[in-house]
Specification:
It is built from eleven helices and 13 strands. The chain has 362 residues and is of the alpha/beta class. The strands form three sheets. A nine-stranded mixed β-sheet has the order 3-2-6-7-1-8-11-12-13. The longest helix has 24 residues. The protein is globular, with a radius of gyration of 22 Å. It starts with 5 loop residues before the first helix and ends with a strand.
Length: 362
């Protein structure tokens, strides 16, 4: 093979990943749902993923299970044996870092110790509702878990504009201990040389110091992105999706990015047939009902739709492989459908147990 060709670079990447698989290592972090993992590899580098649903359906908790706390727990158990590392950047644009930390403590308390602790109790809002000593000791016992968690997961609530989000991630990626930029021959470039290469339209590439690290960026949610300079809301989100996420974070830095998108409020209004029967399909998340920025479907590689039939009083729900008794499951049922994918068949559904009080998803 001719040295330093694009073909050679691509072939070497393919060969490297195949060798890892032969050694029992992984190149993707599997999702926590067995059925979903049969059709999708999981969290992979160089992928832009979206999740859309209506307000209050549990999008933040499901995203935490899929892309934040779930991957961290998997890394804790299998990182060494399966040969991978992680770094996660979480931008909770809806809540503060403090509120986010409390939700994660509640989830860890339940999954690790079997203790259910509602948010209102951990906040101490109810007069006389004092937590028992066992619960307080259990909370204190999570300190070591979260010390390690916060080394891998960076939660950022003081940046809400597109460039600020991108820049916060890029600054970390380009720290000498984390990675650097090289030219087509693999030579490390300093910032001036990178600028000169770009001005001369010469190719450059990002190289991780730890090639086994998967970098994940989660933004919750798109509707709370603030305007960039003199741009309007639509233009700012367009810049975020097309330039900062798809082209730079995903395309150049090969991150896996998850962006939560809200469905239009019209999805929450009941519609009926002439006979008075509710039109169930009108509630299901869709690409054309995404609020504010519908063009996101041209940027994402994968889009999930999250659905809660119980909020519409639907007694039974056909998830594409059988009916679920929603009257029995009530708000503990959720359905995750694939609205767009470069890997799996569109329309594939995954049903799972959802506990909004503890954040437990399985």
């Amino acid at each position: 093979m001719k040295e330093n060709t694009l073909f050679k670079k691509v072939y070497e990447e393919i060969a490297y990943k195949q060798e890892r698989l032969k050694q029992g290592k992984i190149n993707a972090i599997p999702y926590p749902f067995a059925k979903l993992s049969k059709v999708l590899p999981g969290i992979v580098p160089e992928q832009f993923v979206g999740l859309t649903t209506v307000s209050g359906a549990g999008k933040t908790l499901v995203t935490n299970a899929l892309y934040i706390q779930g991957p961290f727990d998997y890394w804790q158990m299998y990182g060494a044996s399966k040969g991978f590392d992680i770094k996660i950047f979480f931008f909770p644009l809806e809540d503060s870092v403090i509120m986010t930390q409390k939700r994660m403590m509640i989830k860890a308390l339940y999954t690790k110790m079997g203790i259910r602790l509602p948010m209102f109790r951990i906040n101490g809002f109810m007069e006389g509702d004092i937590m028992d000593d066992r619960t307080m000791r259990a909370l204190a016992g999570l300190e070591a878990y979260f010390e390690e968690f916060l080394k891998k997961v960076e939660m950022i609530d003081d940046v809400t504009n597109p460039y600020g989000i991108y820049k916060r991630v890029e600054d970390w990626l380009l720290k000498p201990e984390n990675g650097y930029i090289v030219d087509e021959h693999g030579t490390k470039l300093n910032p001036r040389e990178v600028k000169e290469a770009h001005e001369a339209f010469k190719p450059t590439f990002y190289k991780r110091t730890n090639e086994d690290r998967i970098d994940i960026v989660v933004i919750d949610n798109m509707n709370n992105i603030t305007e960039e300079g003199d741009m309007g809301k639509w233009e700012s989100i367009d810049k975020l999706c097309r330039t900062y996420i798809r082209k730079k974070l995903v395309g150049f830095y090969k991150c896996s990015v998850m962006l939560i998108c809200q469905q239009d409020k019209t999805k929450e209004k009941a519609q009926y047939t002439n006979s008075g029967t509710i039109v169930e399909d009108k509630f299901v998340p869709s690409l054309d009902s995404i609020s504010v920025y519908k063009n996101i479907d041209t940027s994402v590689h994968l889009m999930f739709g999250l659905f809660d039939p119980s909020r519409y009083k639907i007694p039974q729900w056909n998830a594409g492989g059988g009916y679920y008794d929603i009257e029995r499951f009530d708000a503990y049922y959720r359905n995750l459908s694939i609205l767009k994918s470069n890997f799996a068949q569109v329309g594939t559904n995954t049903s799972f147990f959802f506990d909004g009080a503890t954040g437990n998803v399985e």
